[in-house]
Amino acid sequence: MAFDSLTEKLQNVFRNLRSKGRLTEDDVKTALREVKMALLEADVNFKVVKSFIKNVQERAVGQDVMNGLNPGQMVIKIVNEELVALMGSETTEIRLEPGKATTVIMMAGLQGAGKTTTTAKLAGKFKLKGKKPLLVACDVYRPAAIQQLQINGEKQGVDVFTMGDKHKPANIAKAALEHAAKNGNNIVILDTAGRLHIDEGMMEELREIKEAVTVHQTILVVDAMTGQDAVNVAKEFNDKIGIDGVIVTKLDGDTRGGAALSIKAVTGCPILYAGMGEKLSDLEQFYPDRMASRILG
Ligand code: GDP
């Protein structure tokens, strides 16, 4: 289950806090040291943890908490609020072009992160909102990826555009936009090719697509189970091609939560959705407050 191990550790810290009637400054410090350990073990970025603990500490050793009726609860409330702030406070929607204009979304990410699956999941969300998405197979390196997109698109009941594996992704994207215009698709989602690691060829290909067509939203898909690697990948993609938002996949199997907790703080890019399973319906909008509640258990 998502966040299991982090939740268990935080609950232990909070149980101790609650059992105390009055809190001394030392009690708070000890508790925060334990929260810090729990976050580091959850693979949250070190700098993020440091500033998080500093914020909580400043608020918690203030008069309110020490003199409050229920100091333990107060500390827990502050930790909760700071966790929400860490994940960006507000829910961020994917920005669609106004009116009848077509929105072009480019999906990026490393191989295996869950990009193709997430592309189809996202199409289902747009369809539910009354949009007519077109999925575009720009991953020309893995014929299986093209087939996977076709199968998933069919399951979702949305249009899929493919040109096989003999064309450049930028040219496929261009042709797809012409197809979308004729076919009345108001959202075009480009499923691009990943690599096992960040490499210049992949970045160049994404840049070429951006030069060939107007991309309105670039969305990065990262695997939550890879923890800080996912955060580093997000930073690298943002620096190299610029991303508008992140979708964190496989949160269902991520017991630690380090990626979900660090991405916004490290990259400045919001998490838009969370993948919660392999089924095409397993995609949840990302609500920082609900995530924080889930983490605290
Ligand atoms: P791509 O190479 O980035 O296009 O990755 P795929 O879309 O092919 O996904 C790789 C694997 O991850 C597949 O087995 C997916 O079913 C699985 N997957 C994708 N998203 C999730 C998720 O949110 N949770 C779980 N448990 N598995 C996922």
Automatic annotation (TrEMBL):
Keywords: Cytoplasm, GTP-binding, Hydrolase, Nucleotide-binding, Ribonucleoprotein, RNA-binding, Signal recognition particle
Record-annotated SRP54-type proteins GTP-binding domain positions: 270-283
Annotated compartments: Cytoplasm
Keyword Nucleotide-binding (UniProt): yes
GO CC aspect terms: signal recognition particle
Binding residues annotated for GTP, in chain numbering: 109-116, 191-195, 249-252
E.C. number: 3.6.5.4
Record-level GO BP terms: SRP-dependent cotranslational protein targeting to membrane
Principal localisation: cytoplasm
Catalyzed reaction equations: GTP + H2O = GDP + phosphate + H(+)
One of the record's GO molecular function terms: GTP binding
Superkingdom of source: Bacteria
Quaternary context: Part of the signal recognition particle protein translocation system, which is composed of SRP and FtsY.
Domain observations: Composed of three domains: the N-terminal N domain, which is responsible for interactions with the ribosome, the central G domain, which binds GTP, and the C-terminal M domain, which binds the RNA and the signal sequence of the RNC.
Protein family according to the UniProt entry: Belongs to the GTP-binding SRP family. SRP54 subfamily.
Record's function text: Involved in targeting and insertion of nascent membrane proteins into the cytoplasmic membrane. Binds to the hydrophobic signal sequence of the ribosome-nascent chain (RNC) as it emerges from the ribosomes. The SRP-RNC complex is then targeted to the cytoplasmic membrane where it interacts with the SRP receptor FtsY.
Name of the molecule in the record: Signal recognition particle protein
Originating species: Sellimonas intestinalis
Full protein segment contained here: 1 to 297 of 454
